[in-house]
Amino acid sequence: MSSTAAERSGVGRRQPATQRGTAIFVCFMAPLVLALVCWSLWGGRWVPSSIQQAIELGGMVLIGVTGLILASHVRHRNVQIERAYSTHLEELSQRLRSLAYQDSLTDLYNHRYFYEQLSHEVERAQRYGRPVSVILLDLDNFKQVNDTYGHLMGDKLLALMGQVIKDQVRASDIAARYGGDEFAIILPDTPRPAAEATAEKLSRAIATGRTNAGSMSENLPLSASFGVACCPDESRTVSELLQLADDRVYAAKAARSSPQPLAAAE
Length: 266
Known about the structure:
By secondary structure, the chain is α+β, with helices and mostly antiparallel strands.
């Protein structure tokens, strides 16, 4: 159990003074009264019956009170434990959801989450007529990066790409690693011209290789090809929207000049 969960639930905290006082009272008085009851029943036959009855009655009352106190303490302790485990399970559940929907390398959402959210956004766009745009982008010459500098360098650039994208999109946008060196962004309530402006901003950020955390020290020449599509203006389904954006990615790649060999890293 994490310390945070224990602190929130109250487990591990010192008992209040009233609880400590009650425990001391029960520990010291219960044996005394029990001894008096036993003595009055078996060893104190010279004691008047009225006193015996008073001792027996007091013993029964104390035993009853002790039982109630112990039951209350156990119940309170059980509630604390239940709260602690409930908090712990909620934290585990959130962690599992994060693992199920997050790409571990780029810290963006994964393809599964992207597709689920895009389905919701397209349905909402069709129902209310509010636009949703999609940006697909594919890194140029990424295979050459892997072939020239190795896959560790490729993974580092993908992670930095994730940071670049997160720096440039809004909190309401949904950025994901679409697969390999492809990325995708859902822009709710965004028409195509505004989405194209975001794509242009991303293109400049990738070309300069800068993130809010600093620049890419390897100084590798990076660029990406973009495709932007909008629903419901240009497409009516998720498949149509993605296909249109994908076609525009490859049209952008074809429009570029032939790739140049990668310059050596400085």
